[in-house]
């Protein structure tokens, strides 16, 4: 399934927290009568939804640094990070129950382990189901796209471009069997990549979409395309870089369509050196104002 919806790229962080906040409010209204005030009940349910989500997101991003984790199918990645996050959340859940219900917890008691197990049985399934449900559109192959700014294909540009074959990096098919459905047939049509939590924003000459994909793996697939990673969250195709701009101590790349890509401070020297080898101009200014990059 590869359904496409052309109403814009979903921003993962606002999306997850908006959905989770709505769920917290719904739980407040459908939960059994409680002696807590409405404000206390709202705070209780928001903490019971927003805190586990935050823990799961952090766990998922940390696990994404492990090779074995990245080799799992997406559904298993989400399940593993979800279960690990839930386990880490259990003591917090008991602590929240104790605070809002004004009870005490004896962590040295033999009953504490039983309480953790009971808490896991109570909160584990709904949290895991909610986590998988929020990621379900991408797991099912739906794509949310928008039209990027006008960008000239590298093959049609007047200046010298670096050709790219359609050969992807070593072991690419093992890491992500569906990569052909994510990237265009001509890999040189990929303009830039941006990591968004455990998603990847892919900008091509035709579309801008959000994929359930890892930046490191994506760069490996694009190994036949000459590009640069000016920031840990970005990769840019050399053929679409127009110039480097430095404003004070901050650097950025201006790419076609007047899009901006930040350059991290620790990569400024490396980036400037590489751009110099490519013959890409460098401009230094103290008060340049330009359009923000899509994020």
Describe what is shown at a glance.
With 295 residues, the protein is α+β, with helices and mostly antiparallel strands.
Apparent shape: elongated
User: Helix- and strand-based class?
Assistant: alpha+beta
Topology as H/E string? EHHHHHEHHEEEHEEEEEHE
Strand order of the largest sheet: 1-2-5-4-3-7-6
Q: Determine the mean pLDDT.
A: 82
At CATH level 2, the architecture of the largest domain is Beta Barrel
Distance between the termini: 26 Å
CATH superfamily name of the largest domain? LytTr DNA-binding domain
Oligomeric state of this protein = single chain
The value of Rg in angstroms is 23 Å
Low-confidence stretches: 164-175, 288-295
**What's the CATH topology label of the largest domain?**
OB fold (Dihydrolipoamide Acetyltransferase, E2P)
Regarding CATH, which class of the largest domain? Answer: Mainly Beta
| Largest beta-sheet details | 7 strands, mixed
- Counted by DSSP, the helix tally is 9
Helix content estimate: 40-55%
The overall strand count is: 11
Number of domains: 2
Strand content: 15-25%
